[in-house]
Design brief:
Blueprint (H helix, E strand, L loop, with lengths): L10 H11 L3 H15 L5 E2 L7 E2 H15 L9 H20 L3 H24 L6 H13 L2 H10 L4 H9 L9 E2 L2 E2 L8 H24 L9 H8 L2 H12 L3 H15 L6 H26 L12 H23 L21 H34 L3 H20 L9 H13 L22 H5 L1
Antiparallel strand pairs: 1-2, 3-4
Helix pairs in contact: 1-2, 1-3, 2-3, 2-6, 3-5, 4-5, 4-15, 5-17, 6-9, 9-11, 9-12, 9-16, 12-16, 14-15, 15-16, 16-17
Length: 461
């Protein structure tokens, strides 16, 4: 066990369990799980003897996931993405248990995968829609505002505050160092890595866009955002703050992901959204081909650190060489891969900054195919919603999630899916499959059909 003071990190799990037993799973999700997920780094964990390290978010999530699995909502139906996610976990388990050099490491990685991917997917799939859609989005946006002091301190002082708090209060040694670009610190806040932080800020920017639309719809009547958040959104303050945090990460991958998300969010502004979708998709494909050609030229040649190649150019070249150098190893790994800890390492390229490459190394061709199917199914489902939803706020939210997923799936070609990002991603994956169109009324409420209602109070009373 690490420092005994780290036991305090398990407290959210006990609070979450208390809420769930009382029948207030919604409170456990909104007031315990999401704050722990977004405000505490993933390396803030407690490891009990013979068990894997547990973060506060994972501790809070376990009672929630078990609760919704015991009694899923009455309107729940099995979908294809449920199958792909289950098969992905099976693929992970087979690769780890068969190929990890140390069996205990393989078992721990499988359990970690359940906590970081399967359980968040279940919660997103069964808990949020339709009643918690607005509260969940509000919590995502408002919690990030608490990271402003951390981001400003990190940028100004060149040191992540979490790397100070962890060792002094909890005896936790930081697993991430400060990243510098252009002589300035790259802001990471609670997400440890600047690239991962950029993805998180982009995702929350897309969710904030939906809150802006809700605030406009509520103009002239009582705002569902609440008095203070409504005022902030009317002046676009949360969006400006999130954009500033994104820029301070100095991460080009998330910048491109944010640009892609912005293009998608333009679509619902057109009268004919289907035609606009086709036009913008065509423009994006042409743009992607152009960017690919530019990057091929930009990263050509060997990596040098003698001043002839900038740090940004060397970083991009490193990612190109990853694909080239690991190609033979991937081929040799076959259908089940090498496992995540035991795969061979080429030269000094220990960091695999491409999630698709990492999945193929760890889980082989089978894992990569299933991972791609997860993405295809998600986009198919969300595009279907954007073409069928008639109620404006539901249509806007479908586009918001589509933009968020597009930003994630485009950016993980330049970074691995680490820290809190697996939980955020799989939570959104589950959420995207359970969207429901509400019933329009004069108040533009989020009322839904009685079939979709689900109360934990009835279950655990």
């Amino acid at each position: 066990m690490n420092n005994p003071l780290s036991l305090v990190l398990l407290l959210p799990g006990l609070i979450s369990l208390y809420f769930v037993i009382r029948g207030d799973a919604e409170k456990a999700f909104l007031r315990v799980y999401l704050p722990a997920l977004l405000l505490l780094p993933a390396y803030y964990s407690c490891r009990l003897p013979h068990l894997l390290p547990i973060t506060s978010a994972e501790a809070a999530m376990i009672p929630l996931a078990i609760a919704v699995m015991i009694r899923p909502p009455s309107g729940w139906r099995f979908c294809r993405l449920d199958l792909w996610v289950l098969l992905y976990m099976v693929s992970l388990s087979i690769s780890e248990l068969l190929h990890e050099r140390v069996m205990n490491d393989g078992i721990m990685l499988v359990l970690s995968g359940i906590l970081s991917m399967l359980f968040p997917y279940i919660i997103g799939r069964l808990l949020i829609e339709p009643k918690l859609r607005l509260p969940t989005t509000k919590v995502f946006v408002t919690l990030i505002l608490f990271l402003i002091p951390f981001g400003l301190y990190e940028y100004r002082m060149g040191f992540n505050p979490y790397a100070i708090i962890g060792p002094k209060l909890l005896g936790i040694i930081p697993t991430w160092g400060l990243q510098i670009r252009g002589g300035r610190a790259r802001v990471a806040t609670s997400f440890s890595d600047a690239e991962l932080a950029g993805i998180a800020f982009t995702v929350i920017l897309t969710l904030n866009w939906w809150l802006v639309q809700i605030n406009k719809m509520d103009r002239g009547k009582e705002s569902r955002l609440g008095k203070w958040l409504s005022k902030l959104e009317s002046k676009h303050i949360p969006g400006i703050i999130l954009l500033a945090l994104l820029l301070l990460t100095q991460s080009r991958g998330p910048f491109l992901g944010a640009a892609l998300a912005y293009a998608i969010l333009l679509i619902p502004k057109f009268k004919n959204t289907k035609l606009a979708s086709i036009v913008i998709a065509s423009i994006l494909i042409v743009g992607a081909l152009g960017i690919h050609a530019y990057l091929q030229k930009y990263t050509s040649g060997p990596i040098t650190y003698d001043g002839t190649m900038s740090e940004q150019q060397a970083s991009a070249a490193y990612r190109r060489l990853l694909l080239e150098n690991y190609a033979p190893i991937i081929q040799e790994g076959g259908w089940l891969g090498w496992s995540y800890l035991s795969h061979p390492v080429v030269g000094n390229q220990v960091s695999i900054d491409n999630q698709f490459l990492l999945v193929q190394l760890g889980q082989g061709r089978l894992g990569l195919i299933i991972f791609i199917l997860i993405g295809i199914e998600t986009f198919f489902r969300l595009i279907k919603f954007t073409w069928t939803f008639k109620r404006q706020e539901d249509l806007y939210f479908a586009f918001s999630l589509l933009a968020a997923m597009a930003a994630i799936w485009s950016t993980i070609t330049t970074v691995y899916l680490g820290e809190q990002l697996p939980q955020i991603t799989f939570l959104l994956l589950g959420w995207s499959q359970s969207l429901q169109e509400g019933v329009s009324d004069q108040n533009q409420s989020l009322a839904t059909t009685s079939q979709a209602k689900f109360s934990f109070k009835r279950v655990f009373a």
